[in-house]
Design goal:
Number of helices: 11
Helix content: 25-40%
Number of strands: 14
Low-confidence stretches: 1-17, 269-329
Mean pLDDT: 80
Strand content: 15-25%
Oligomer: single chain
Radius of gyration: 19 Å
Structural class: alpha/beta
Largest sheet: 10 strands, mixed
């Protein structure tokens, strides 16, 4: 299985090794149907719009980092069909290095079949496909790029062992690590906590990981303390429209950061940041709370046009904290 890309292309040969952000994660082709309501069991209903998009937690995070102005590289695996070819082209169009975007004939590109109603609520079926074939040999080829990066981002839509190994490579090289434990499992390997400089999850994931109910900022603070005790340097729990709660080893008192209320168009849509805000978010002030306030103001501006999106919110917090604040000696 060879890496995709255009041999000799300047970006592929020179920029990949210098990527500030490397994401090891998933790519999903989104098959989205818009309807007035979600169908009941066994029911067939008419929709009013269909479109194909590019999703997957890993790729979404990589695109967001690139649109914020960071040089980004994606380590992933897609199929050899049209979905896979289109996905790699989309990464290139977003100025992301695809040197380590592998293609395989052994499985189709991961897909997510999504139905969205007029309130923005959704129902989703995911078939991971080629994502589950990302392996240690693929990671070995990308190891040097990971070691040279400033930030590594991982999730759990690929084999957990691969995410764990990627985090290990980065951590042992002094690269700052960001881990989004989604989809969450109650028996998460404890090494993930110790290898995560920033551990970011939403409220439902926090409940699965800690066994505690999380229905308020105060609950999130309690759950975050449990996660911090497991070895993380920084814990962020996102609360959807309510904002997020964060704490860290140096400052173990939970901080609640609210966001402005907006009307969600579709909670699966990955919003696009204002390009003019990119440089200030990738290179923010030294004070984390001030940076978070800057993130909040910019976040409000573009979410009014798009939707409430926890994945994008996480990335803005990630980049804000990590490219400004040293967490490990």
């Amino acid at each position: 299985m060879a890496a995709s890309g255009e041999p000799g292309r300047q970006w592929q040969e020179e920029e990949a090794a210098a990527a500030a952000v490397v994401v090891v994660g998933s790519c999903m082709t989104d098959l989205v149907s818009l309807t007035t309501r979600l169908p009941k069991t066994g029911e067939t209903i008419h929709g009013h719009k269909f479109f194909i998009g590019f999703g997957g937690k890993g790729a979404n995070q990589c695109v967001q980092a690139a649109r914020l102005g960071a040089k980004a590289s994606m380590v992933c695996k897609v199929g050899k069909g049209s979905f896979g070819n289109d996905y790699i082209e989309n990464l290139k169009q977003n100025a992301i290095s695809t040197e380590f975007a592998y293609q395989t004939a052994e499985a189709a590109t991961g897909t997510a079949s999504i139905i969205v109603n007029k309130e923005g609520q959704n129902s989703i079926v995911i078939v991971a496909g080629a994502n589950l074939l990302l392996n240690r040999e693929d990671l070995r080829k990308a190891a040097d790029a990971i070691r040279r990066a400033r930030v590594l981002i991982c999730q759990l839509e690929i084999p957990p062992a691969i995410s764990l190994e990627a985090l290990t490579i980065a951590h042992s090289s002094g690269v700052k690590t960001l881990f989004n434990p989604a989809p969450a499992t109650a028996d998460l390997d404890p090494r993930f906590y110790a290898l995560s400089d920033v551990f970011c999850c939403n409220e439902s994931e926090a409940e699965i990981l800690t066994g505690l109910a999380v229905s308020s900022p105060a609950d999130a603070g309690t759950a975050a303390l449990v996660l911090l005790e497991r070895g993380c340097q920084v814990v962020i729990i996102t609360l959807g429209a309510e904002g997020c709660v964060m704490l860290s080893k140096p400052e173990p008192v939970p901080k609640y950061i609210p966001t402005e209320k907006i009307k969600a168009v579709d909670t699966t849509v990955k919003a696009v940041p204002d390009p003019n805000a990119s440089s200030s978010l990738v290179y923010p002030p030294e004070e984390t709370p001030a940076s978070l306030r800057l993130m909040q103001v910019s976040y409000k501006a573009w979410t009014i046009l798009f939707s409430s999106c926890s994945v994008s919110l996480r990335l803005w917090i990630y980049v804000t904290i990590f490219l400004s604040t040293p967490l490990r000696p």
